[in-house]
Amino acid sequence: MKRTDYITWDEYFMGIALLSAQRSKDNSTQVGACIVNDKHKIVSVGYNGMPTGCVDDEMPWERDGESPLDTKYPFVCHAELNAILNSSFGSLSGCTLYVTLYPCNECAKAIIQSGIKRVVYKCNKYANTDSVKASTILFDKCGVTVEEYQSNGKDLVLSV
Questions:
Q1: Do residues 49 and 23 touch, judged by C-beta distance below 8 A?
Q2: How many Cβ atoms are within 10 Å of 95's Cβ, its own excluded?
Q3: Taking the CA of residue 147 as centre, how many other CA atoms within 13 Å lie in the half-sphere pointing to its CB?
């Protein structure tokens, strides 16, 4: 008999997003993303970090500073955008994005423009911000399905 306690597709792909988040060097928020096609094949992954070619030791990672240029915000690429840009699959039309944090409005626009049709997120800690409210409006108006990740309570454990 085959085993019956294996993880679901959603658990598997959210696990990949969570693992990807561990690559982030951000000292306050680590976000990971995994894009999957309709055949359950991973087409791309990403995490929040500095653009390729930036020496991240020379870049600001702080949330606050004397000016916006003293913070991470004008420089860091979000996990969703990195996953979209990292794809060498071709079209992302009809794909699903698994992401550990609800997308901001800028990422929502990239998600919509890339053709992704479903977003599964783990956490929405910025739900009351205008950015996330705008994302929700954009997703609704553009036909992108958004679902909160539902775990069956099983802990996924990695040891190295």
A1: yes
A2: 23
A3: 12
Residue 40 marked in a binding site: no
Is 104 annotated to bind a ligand? Reply is yes
Active site residue 80: yes
Contact of 97 with 117, CB cutoff 8 Å: no
The whole-model pTM stands at 0.93
**For the chain, which domains are there?**
9-148 (3.40.140.10)
Catalytic residue among 58, 62, 66, 80: 80
Flag whether 123 is marked binding.
Answer: no
Six-digit token pair at 158?
């990695």
Q: What is the mean pLDDT of residues 5-22?
A: 94
* pLDDT tens-digit readout, 95-125: 999 999 999 999 999 999 999 999 999 999 9
